[in-house]
Specification:
With 671 residues, the chain is α/β, with parallel strands linked by helices. It is built from 15 helices and 32 strands. The strands form nine sheets. Strands 11-12-15-18-21-22-23-24 form an eight-stranded parallel barrel. A six-stranded antiparallel beta sheet has the order 25-26-27-32-29-30, covered by helices on one side. A hairpin with a 6-residue loop joins strand 2 and strand 3. Helix 10 (383-395) packs across helix 11 and helix 10 (383-395) runs antiparallel to helix 14. 48% of the residues are buried.
Length: 671
């Protein structure tokens, strides 16, 4: 009986295991790691068992100019800890420049029984394995989703169990989404500045444990550990046919810049774990804006990331990952490399086959914008879709003409970016809003950001919005203003769901959630970010659900790269039409007088019956009503975004249709 410990450090001269009492406050014993295999230190502790609380101390040189920051007075957290003990408080003792020992206040690891861990009752759990052609992502914060949900038991609100309860799943099923994309659930720290202001890192992009579940989202119901409560949530979502994607932050850690605390990686081997500037080993390469960047060029750092990914798939049953600032992971010695070791490791790993991999394809370093350059099989957040679609719909409101050609490219999965190396249109993750920015309701309600509560004098977040001054920002009760906001929300949602690619809906957008104009609420763990279910716009929820069903039934633009030329039967997969029904010509794309744009889809991705119908998508971003001359044969309405009622296809249209201002219409051929 006993426990094996293994710790990587290429530059330490000695490593100690420090054993604590059951409270984690009193250090009982120190044991040297007696052996070393290459850069991995080993220790077998006889008589130890699950529940043991421990930390590490690393001895070595203090040469910051060379990247070495060893200080044995700092107790270090095991980077591979499954269970982290303690509540972190910012104290001077955590900083290497302070000579005092920080053990009494440091986070510590608790040994987990891997055998009992494997015995969690997964029942007949199985990943839904939703094909990309049917995937609809729903970005959601575990706490914010249910913190104010009256249908969730009070004790479970804001927790993993709350997200798994029947009221939550019922809403997800009502919408028809296929995957929840959770904001970070790795255990994280609140930055020192935020803590001093009484704020917290609500989003969680400040990881302290790549293998540890964030305990703040655990209810502790039925005596479950945070790990088991997370697993039970995954099991319940899978039973409802919903996949679980987790947002992971492998680009940096919570240790911040060179003046930050020594908590784990920095004290074990700063020079190996973190990237430094070329020929300046003591200067951290801040590619992330968070003070440091993990160096996945080092095989042991890469191994830790891969071990974490495999752990969350095999032990936690997640279905995919969204990688924050993903270019950092693919940076070699000379910038981003699509053949970097990380991508090669993922591609060959049998555990990760079939797992959805989604990149945020930019960081803040040189050459950091890499949209469309990730390997085949990866999906990427497409901010070009976001920006172009916003400009198309909201630009008309403030008198700005938009490029219809670029808008058409975004509707068709940005082929100029993604159509290479056998990538599919689904590689483009389309979104209008995300956690970072305005909500959909605020996007059409505010001219500028209102971030004063963040404590940065409204200097943080993105600048001005593309919206219009519709009376008093956000709170106007003027009927005309409210109608504009409602119709624009529906038009934007329709564009998102009917476009080619993989749509991502931000939680709350389907029910009119507002953050009061705060477009960077990363530190607002309160009613600003928590969804207010009591004011939910039920008609908007119904509209969003009908859109998702329409997408599922028809998949209008399919998941294949569409051709403009006719096939052997004379059928064209896609034609772009003017309001007079004629095909768009080169000069038409920039003619501001055209207004309406039509997409004639000869071969939709699916058919609800055997009629082999064509589809016609009509888009009018102008405030004025526009006429559209319909091609032959007759057509039936499938959807009109100006209508709040459920969609219908009762009457046939054969000559022309009047397209309301700020609207999207979808028709099917019937003759």
């Amino acid at each position: 009986m006993g426990v094996n410990f293994a710790v990587f450090s290429a530059h330490a001269q000695r490593i100690e295991l420090c054993i604590f009492d059951a409270t984690g406050a009193v250090e009982l014993q120190r044991v040297n790691f007696p052996s070393r295999s290459g850069d991995v230190w080993h220790l077998h502790l006889d008589g130890a068992s699950a529940g043991l609380i421990y930390g590490l101390r690393a001895h070595g040189v203090w040469q910051p100019e060379l990247g070495h920051r060893f200080n044995p007075n700092k107790l270090l957290l095991d980077p591979c800890a499954r269970d982290i003990v303690g509540r972190f408080e910012w104290r001077d003792e955590h900083f290497a420049q302070d000579p005092r020992d920080n053990a009494a206040h440091a986070l510590k690891a608790r040994v987990v029984d891997e055998i009992s861990e494997a015995e969690f009752d997964w029942a007949d759990d199985k990943s839904p394995g939703t094909p990309l052609t049917e995937t609809v992502l729903y970005e959601v914060h575990v706490k914010g989703f249910t913190a104010q949900h009256e249908g969730v038991p009070t004790a479970l609100r804001g927790t993993y169990a709350g997200l798994a309860c029947s009221a939550s799943i019922s809403h997800l099923k009502r919408l028809g989404i296929t995957a929840v994309s959770l904001l970070p659930v790795h255990q994280h720290l609140d930055e020192q500045r935020l803590a001093a202001q009484g704020l917290s890192n609500y989003w969680g992009y400040n990881t302290i444990g790549f293998f540890a579940v964030e305990p703040r989202y655990a209810s502790g119901a039925k005596g479950q550990t945070p790990r088991d409560e997370f697993r039970a949530m995954v099991r319940s979502l899978h039973a409802a046919g919903i996949e679980v994607i987790v947002d992971v932050v492998f680009n940096h850690t919570a240790e911040s810049d060179a003046d930050g605390p020594t908590l784990s990686w920095r004290g074990l081997d700063n020079r190996s774990y973190y990237r430094a500037l070329p020929h300046q080993p003591g200067v951290l390469d801040n590619l992330t804006g968070c003070g440091n960047a993990l160096d996945l060029r080092h095989p042991r750092v890469l191994q830790q990331v891969m071990d974490s990914l495999r752990y969350w798939v095999s032990s936690m049953h997640v279905d995919g990952f969204r990688f924050d600032l993903a270019p950092v992971l693919g940076r070699g010695d000379h910038g981003f490399d699509t053949r970097a070791a990380f991508f090669q490791a993922v591609a060959q790993d049998p555990v990760l086959q079939g797992v959805k991999m989604i990149a945020e394809p930019w960081d803040i370093g040189p050459g950091g914008y890499q949209l469309g350059r990730f390997p085949s099989g990866w999906l990427e957040w497409n901010d070009r879709f976001r920006d172009t679609v916003r400009a198309h719909w909201l630009g008309f409101e403030i008198g700005q003409d938009t490029d219809r050609g670029e808008f058409a490219q975004r509707l068709t999965a940005s082929a100029e970016l993604f159509n290479y190396q056998h990538r599919e249109p689904a590689a483009s993750v389309n979104f209008i809003t995300a956690h970072d920015g305005f909500t959909l309701r605020d996007l059409v309600s505010y001219n500028s950001k209102h971030n004063h509560a963040n404590g940065e004098h409204n200097r943080d977040g993105h600048g001005h919005n593309l919206s219009w001054n519709g009376g008093e920002e956000g709170a106007s009760s003027d009927a005309a203003v409210l109608l504009r906001r409602a119709t624009l929300q529906r038009a934007l949602l329709a564009t998102l769901m009917l476009s080619q690619g993989t749509p991502m809906l931000c939680a709350g957008d389907e029910l009119g959630h507002s953050q009061g104009g705060n477009n960077n609420p990363y530190c607002q763990d309160n009613a600003t970010t928590w969804i207010d279910w009591s004011t939910a716009d039920e008609s908007l929820i119904d509209f969003a659900a009908q859109l998702i069903k329409l997408r599922r039934d028809w998949l209008p633009l399919a998941n294949r790269w569409l051709r403009g030329e006719a096939d052997a039967q004379g059928m064209q997969e896609l034609r772009w039409l003017r309001g007079d029904g004629q095909e768009m010509q080169r000069d038409d794309w920039r003619d501001p007088q055209l207004g309406v744009l039509g997409a004639l889809i000869g071969k939709p991705g699916k058919q609800v019956d055997a009629s082999h119908s064509q589809l016609l998508m009509l888009i009018n971003a102008d405030a004025r009503e526009r006429s559209f001359q319909l091609p032959q044969p007759a057509w039936q309405m499938l959807m009109d975004s100006r209508l709040e009622t459920k969609f219908s296809a009762d009457s046939a249209l054969s000559q022309h249709v009047m397209l309301a201002g700020r609207s999207v219409m979808l028709l099917r051929s019937v003759g």
